[in-house]
Amino acid sequence: MSALPPDFIARLPRLVPADQLDAVLRAFTRRPTTFRVNTLKTTRDAVLAELTARAFQVEPVSWYADAFILRNKSKRELMETPLYTRGEIYVQSLSSMLPPLVLAPQPGEKVCDLTAAPGSKTTQMAALMNNTGEIVANDRSKIRLGKLVANLKLQGVKNVRTRLSNGEDLWKKFLEYFDRVLVDAPCSLEGRFEAGNAKSFGDWSLRKVEFLSAIQCHLLRSAVTMTKPGGVIVYSTCTLSPEENERVIDWILQKEPDRVHVEPIELPLENVLPGITHWEQQEFSEQVRHTVRVLPSELMEGFFLARLRKHG
Fold it and tell me: Smallest Cα–Cα separation from 105: which of 196, 214, 16, 233?
């Protein structure tokens, strides 16, 4: 079995309580397939009826009525069903479903998905908004944007317009335009590491963590500038490193002290911790305690979430 990077392992005891550390270390493995119902095309009951008829055993997710855990068959078998090929279900990790729920876009609003491809959260937000309002889905990669466009079509999404541009600069086109902005930032993917899969962490390094942190800061500042006064910004990553999480939130609070504050997040999960307020030699704003760390578990990837409100 491939061992996780030593530098990564060495940092975990400072991020995870001692009584939870062994469980977290065991959680860096492949998880069950999870998916959500695409309510733009079908209903929960219709999906359950068809899956039952095809001998699929699924378990509901207590905190999200449209989400399920596949218990008896493979991801490939699920993706070979007509439900999948018709775009009536979307295979997505449970942690990935959290940012749209925390952002809570409303029907009729103007929303931006700043780093959108391949579209998991964009399509989820379109369903939450009942295909109304406007979502601008941006990505800097032409190849990834092509995958996003294909997913939008398959899922029956009608309220999205796509853009190919650097998220750091998008504010120049949309100054205080959006009611809500999602920044699901490119990150070092630590929450998705698999101990038996060297490819999942092969290019990880502390140097890369620092490099990504700088990009994340500028993406978040762009998002704040694009948001209307009174609007909401959600920042998320699937990594554990404070440099990419709490430090980024502390940075925006320092750069925009009179423009944003951190709002509490309530999640009905057991594997969550509040954000940390110090790391190595740096102290963070007390507001950072309102952010949320989702610890890796049997069902969920490691994740980080922050909800910011722009001052009116």
Answer: 233
